[in-house]
Design goal:
Chain lengths: 224, 47, 225
């Protein structure tokens, strides 16, 4: 399929761009570490209290980091004036979005996995037993963040004060993802770890709805 | 009657919000009307 | 001039009518007492707000596919008016809640949804203020509006699910439970009056937007000369 072929090529470009400099990943990692530190200082986590607040703090940290990490997504294309070239290079404009959101999801999951040991250490939570399930939550949650995040990156690139606009647009929309991921993570980190399928269902529903919307309206987001 | 002041407060607040909004729309409307007049005179002078 | 005076008169009449309904016509509820009367305003406003935001969604879709400026005018008007109604919901809710629940606020499904809805559409207006070019502003705010509206059922169901995980004591039997005929009539009439208010505010705001568009045209013409 032309769409997948184009998307794969573009995904390769996105990954190469990032891994050449790694500036996005490094700055995001440092930012999340900072947030963890701030939370630890202000909330004084002990073991029992940690388990109550920790999942929420984890995902709030990820959300803040993501709303910064997603900024350059389309901004980069605008500053270098490469958007029109990109549009000409593909048969289906959705390929551009597909590649970008795949890259963004990958970067987010990578960052989250890197941060997991720090999280376990600072907040005294046991993660080893539920590692595969945590990975699933990270993947579905990051996908949920990346899909509207990529779309709104294209929108905020058109606006003034775009660094502030992206979080303002993105964070209210991500309410269902925050609720679902926090609760499922809490279920996994609690005294009797279990995977909450209702929460996973919400994440999947969210991902499907927004992916469909992006597929239907993506081409308009690329208009100049 | 208990809580009657709360009911009054709620209704007054509600109506106040509608009034303030309506007044805001009216004010913006008259400001724009003035602007239209100004621009029309400017354009007719230019002719 | 006459039209706006007439509009103001209609506004007064509608407001006075809601006052009559709430304070005179509607009976006093048995368990909650007089505080229940807040519901007539609170619930009708919530419903009107949803109608307004639904109108915005429709206008957003229309704009993306037709690019008619009129749809953009309708979208921004519906959003502003919707936010006015949502503000009334968010103010009357806590005023009711404090004497009854003892707290001003709680994050249950309906309240959280109302709050998030307010935030979403405030962001929509902020986005519009940050894009200067009219066509771009219309298109990109319409696209955001579409995404935002699609989020609404997801927000509602996710919070409801979250609440079933962490049940709260059921404080409220639901305002519709045990409706006496005069209460039902009060609700309907109040909702009618507020729908009238919605239409009035919407048409006023729409005319404002249409006028703003013609001012922009005139300005452009003046600059060219």
């Amino acid at each position: 399929m032309a769409l997948l072929a184009d998307a794969t090529i573009l995904l390769g470009k996105e990954l190469r761009t990032e891994f050449r400099s790694r500036e996005l990943l490094t700055t995001t990692v440092v930012f999340i570490l900072l947030i963890f530190m701030l939370f630890s200082i202000t909330f004084h986590p002990t073991t029992t209290e940690s388990q109550q607040f920790a999942p929420g703090l984890l995902w709030v940290a990820f959300l803040f980091a993501a709303s910064l990490m997603l900024q350059p997504c389309f901004l980069r294309e605008q500053t270098n004036d490469t958007l029109s070239a990109l549009r000409l290079s593909v048969s289906d404009p959705f390929a551009i979005f597909f590649a970008k959101l795949a890259a963004n999801t990958l970067f987010l999951v990578l960052t989250e996995l890197l941060m997991l040991p720090f999280f376990a250490g600072f907040f005294n939570v046991h993660i080893l037993a539920v590692l595969p399930q945590l990975f699933l939550v990270f993947f579905l949650g990051s996908l949920g963040i990346a899909i509207p995040g990529t779309a709104f990156s294209a929108i905020s690139a058109q606006a003034r004060m775009r660094e502030l606009m992206l979080p303002l647009l993105l964070l209210p929309v991500l309410t269902p993802i925050l609720i679902a991921t926090t609760d499922v993570t809490a279920g996994l980190l609690g005294p009797e770890p279990s995977l909450n399928f209702g929460g996973l269902g919400i994440m999947i529903a969210f991902d499907v709805v927004f992916l469909t919307a992006l597929w239907l309206f993506g081409e308009y987001l690329l208009e100049e | 009657m208990k809580n009657l002041d709360s009911v009054l407060a709620a209704y007054l607040a509600g109506w106040a919000i509608f009034f303030v909004y309506y007044i805001s729309v009216s004010q913006r409307m008259s400001a724009l009307r003035e602007e239209v007049e100004r621009l029309k005179t400017l354009l007719s002078k230019g002719k | 001039m006459l039209k706006s005076a007439l509009r103001a008169v209609v506004l007064f009449v509608l407001i006075a009518f809601t006052a009559y309904l709430a304070f005179y016509y509607a009976p006093i509820e048995r368990t909650m007492g007089v505080i229940q009367k807040i519901f007539y305003l609170h619930i009708s406003c919530a419903f009107s707000a949803f109608v307004a935001f639904g109108t915005c969604f429709y206008a957003n879709l229309r704009y993306v596919f037709t690019r008619e400026p009129k749809s953009d005018w309708l979208a921004v008007s519906a959003t502003e008016v919707g936010l006015a109604f949502i503000s009334v919901v968010l103010v009357t809710g806590p005023i009711w809640a404090h004497p009854v629940w003892g707290i001003w606020w709680t994050w249950d499904a309906r309240l959280t949804l109302t709050f998030v809805l307010g935030l979403l559409y405030v962001s929509y207006l902020l986005l519009r203020s940050m894009i200067e070019e009219p066509d771009k502003r219309a298109l990109f705010s319409a696209l955001f509006g579409i995404f935002a509206f699609l989020d609404v059922p997801l927000v509602y169901f996710s919070i409801r699910w979250w609440r079933t995980q962490h049940p709260q004591p059921v404080i409220l039997g639901g305002p519709g439970s045990g409706l006496e005929p005069r209460m039902r009539v009060s609700y309907l009439l109040m909702w009618g009056a507020l729908t009238g208010l919605l239409i009035l505010l919407l048409s006023a705001r729409y005319k404002l937007e249409a006028l703003r568009a013609s001012v922009e045209d005139l300005r452009r013409e003046a600059e060219v000369r």
